Amino acid sequence: MKATVQILWFKKDLRVIDHIPLVKACENKTPILPVYLIEPSFWKQPFCSKRHWSFLRDCLIDLQKDLINLKSNLHVEITESLTFFNKINKTFNISSILSHEETGNKWVLSRNQKVQKWCKVKSIDFCEYPNNGVIRNLETRDKWSQIKKTRFNSPIQNSPGAINTINYQFEFDLPSINNPIFGNEEIFKVQKGGRKEALKIFDIFLKTNSANYLKYISGPNNSDQSCSRLSTHLTYGTLSVKEVLKKVNFYLDQNSSYLDKSKIKNIKAFTSRISWRCHFIQKLEDQPSIEFKSMHPNFDALTRYQSINAHFRSWEKGLTGYPFIDACMRSLTQNGWINFRMRAMLVSFASYDLWLDWKITGNLLAKLFTDYEPGIHYSQLQMQSGVTGINTFRIYNPVKQSIEHDKNGIFIKKWVPELKNLDCSFIHEPWKMDLTTQKNNNCILGKDYPNRIVIHEEAIKFVRNEIKKILETDNYYEMSKKVFKKHGSRKRNSIKVTNNTKQLSLF
Ligand SMILES: Cc1cc2nc3c(=O)[nH]c(=O)nc-3n(C[C@H](O)[C@H](O)[C@H](O)COP(=O)(O)OP(=O)(O)OC[C@H]3O[C@@H](n4cnc5c(N)ncnc54)[C@H](O)[C@@H]3O)c2cc1C
Predict the structure, then answer these.
(1) Cα 98 to ligand 1 centre (Å)
(2) Sorting pLDDT into bands at 50, 70 and 90, what band is 500?
(3) DSSP letters along 367-433, please?
(4) How far does residue 199's CA lie from ligand 1's centre (Å)?
(5) In whole numbers, what is the pLDDT of the chain averaged over residues?
(6) Ligand 1, CB within 6 Å, residue ranges
C-alpha cells in the first residue's frame, strides 16, 4: 500500500518561522515532503534572470539548514510542477499540497490554477494560506486596511520543534548560477541571499543605518548604505512582513528611553514603506491584467513604442547622453539595485522622453532588479509612466535630478568614467561643451560619450500633447473614479481623483 504524504511546497516564502503552511502541515500526523521546484517554463519568462536565481540559491541553502535542524530535509528538483506531483502521486498518496498564496505574474496564476484543477480531479486538498497583508478575493478596498491590520496584530507562527518527514530520496543538488536554464546574461554583483543574511542586515539597519534613512533615501551615493536593503529578502520571503513589523515595534519599545526623535521618524518612514509594499501587491492580486494593461484603459491608446528600438538600446546600455540617467542605469546593471527615486527617474525618462512602452522597459528592469516583485513592479511602472489615472503625473527633468542628487558629479564620474575630467559646469549637461572644451577634457561628444539622444524639453512638449488627448476623452474621469474605487489608497491624505479639467490644468 502506498504511504500518504503531504507536500509542503515552498515558493517565495523561504523560511520556517511565520510559515502558516508548515504549521498547518505539522498539525496532522501525515508525513511531510518539503519541496522547492525549479520550473523550466517559469525561468524562460522575459522577466526572469539568473540574478534572481543567484539570490534564491543562497536562500535555499539556509532553508535546508533550518529544515535539517527540524529533523527534516528539502527536496529540490528541476521539473514542471504537475510533472513532479504526478510522479510523487505514483509512489505515494498525496493527501494535500500546502503553500502560501502567491501574487505573481500571469504565468504563476495559470500554473496555480492548473495545479488546483489537477488536485480537484485527484481528490487532493490544495491548501493555500495568506502571506502577509495581501488579501485574496478582497471584496472592496475599503476593508483592506482593517483586515491587514488584524493579520499583522496576530502572533508570529513559531517553527515546530521537529517535522514529521516522509522517507524519500531527497535531492539537494542546486544548479549553479551558470546553468543555461537561468539565461546567459552577465549579472556582475548580486546581493547575498538567505535568512541569516536577512537577519544580519535588518539588525544593522535598525541599530545603525536607519539613522540616515530619510536623509539619503534618494541620494545615489549613500542610499545603498542607509536604506534597509530588505526588498529582495521580502520578495523571497526569508523574512515575513509581519516579522519585520514586530521586530521594529519590539526595538522601539525596548529602546524608547534613549532613541531620539529623528531616529524614530526614520524608522516610522521605513515601516510605512513596508505597508506600501502590501498596498501595491494588492493591486496585482485584485487585477492581474495590470501586468499587461494600463490601470486606466484609455492610456492603452497612447502611441508609445512597443518594440525594442535604438533609443531602448541606448537607455539599456547607459548611453543616452544624459550623464545622470546613464550613471543610474550602469550602476543598476552592475549591482542589481538602485533606490526608489532613481528607479522612478529611469522609468520616467524611458516612458516620457523616449516614449517607450512601460511593458518593454518593465521586462528589462525586472531582470535587473534582484528584488523583482511583480505586484510592486507593475504598479510602480504604471505610476511612473502616468497610466494609472489616479496619480499625479511626474515627469522628471534629468538635469534637475542630477544637480539635486549629485551636485558635484561624484556618482556620475564613478559610473561614467568617460566624463571624469568634466567640472561641475558641464558634468550635468556635457552637450553644452564647445569643441575646444571637449578636447581639453578628453571627451569628444559622439566619439567618447554620446550626444544626448533626445532633447528633454522638446520630447516633453510632444508628450504633454499626447497625454492631453487622453485626458480629454469623454469617459476619462469616470474611468479614473473606477480605478480609484478598485485600487486607491483610503488614507485621508492620499491623492484623490481629480476631474479632467483639474488634471489638465495641473499638467
Ligand atoms: C519603477 C519601479 C519599480 C520597482 N520595482 C520594485 C520591485 O520589483 N520590488 C521591490 O521590492 N520594490 C520595487 N520598487 C520599490 C522600491 O524602489 C524598492 O522597494 C526599494 O528601493 C528597495 O530598497 P530597500 O529594501 O532598501 O527599501 P527601503 O527604503 O528600506 O524600504 C523598505 C521596504 O519597503 C518596501 N518599499 C519601499 N519603497 C516602496 C515603494 N515605493 N513601493 C512599494 N514598496 C516599497 C520594500 O519592500 C522595501 O524593502 C520599485 C520602484 C519603482 C519606481
Answers:
(1) 28
(2) low
(3) HH-TT--HHHHHHHHHHHTT-SSSS------HHHHHHHH-TT-HHHHHH-GGGTT--HHHHS-GGG-
(4) 18
(5) 95
(6) 227-231, 234-235, 270, 273-274, 276-277, 280, 339-340, 343-344, 347, 369, 371-373, 376-377, 380-381, 384
Q: Is the pLDDT of residue 507 over 80?
A: no
Is 291-506 a domain of CATH 1.10.579.10? Answer: yes
Residue 491's pLDDT band (cuts 50, 70, 90): confident
Determine the residue of 227, 238, 376 to mutate for testing ligand 1's pocket, defined as the one with the most ligand atoms within 8 A of the Cβ atom.
376
Ranges of each domain in the chain? 4-130, 132-158+195-286, 291-506
Asked if 443 and 449 touch (Cβ cutoff 8 Å), the reply is yes
The CATH number, out of the four listed (3.40.190.170, 1.20.120.1200, 3.90.550.10, 3.40.50.620), of the domain defined by the range 4-130: 3.40.50.620
Q: Is the pTM of this model over 0.85?
A: yes
Nearest Cα residue to atom 15 of ligand 1: 340
pLDDT, position 256: 85
CA of 394 to the centre of ligand 1 (A): 18
**Best residue among 273, 274, 285, 325 to mutate for probing ligand 1, ranked by most atoms within 8 Å of CB:** 273
Residue 77 has pLDDT above 60, yes or no: yes
Contacts of 370 (CB under 8 A, 6+ apart): 51, 52, 54, 55, 190, 191, 232, 336, 337
Q: Does residue 504 have a pLDDT over 80? A: no
pLDDT in tens, 91-128: 999 999 999 999 999 999 999 999 999 999 999 999 99
Domain 132-158+195-286, CATH: 1.25.40
